[in-house]
Amino acid sequence: MRFERSGIGVEVPPGWAAALARREQGDEVPPAAERRRGDQGADAGLAARRPVATNHPVLHLGSFPLPPERGDYGSGAVDAMSATDVFVSIVEFHPDAATTPLFAHEGVPRALTADDFGADALQRVLRGQSGCQRFFRVNGRAFCLYVVLGSHLRRHLLIGRVNEVLEQLEIAEAPS
Q: Taking the model in full, what pTM does it have?
């Protein structure tokens, strides 16, 4: 199944889910994902809605059903993953970011390796999971690729599923 929105297109593998959010400036991030986390640390009080500072697209892909409310980097979704699942988030930033050193890599990262993944790359550590984050630019657009694997121990098996999706990812110039 081909999924295409906001100049971002990808062939979605059978059994996978895809969704694109485009929060408008002034929208608020729903607190449900934060409440589901059950954190007891400094973030425990984040149940209040927070304003969004950008209106760029966020693409989510998962090998499992994506919950309707998700944070940009998968809060509320990664909690529902099994050890055989993968979650991919592609977050677009303001075009000005594309000229900064952080986004110096030109082109979609298409060949991640098992060594690219670790628990230290996760936005929030969940036991057994593994993550990878890469910043890049394509056609003057700046992006962050954030991937979570359901099992660090199975990363050698799961990484092929991620790379298949990344190989199909196409990013056009920003729509006018």
A: 0.82
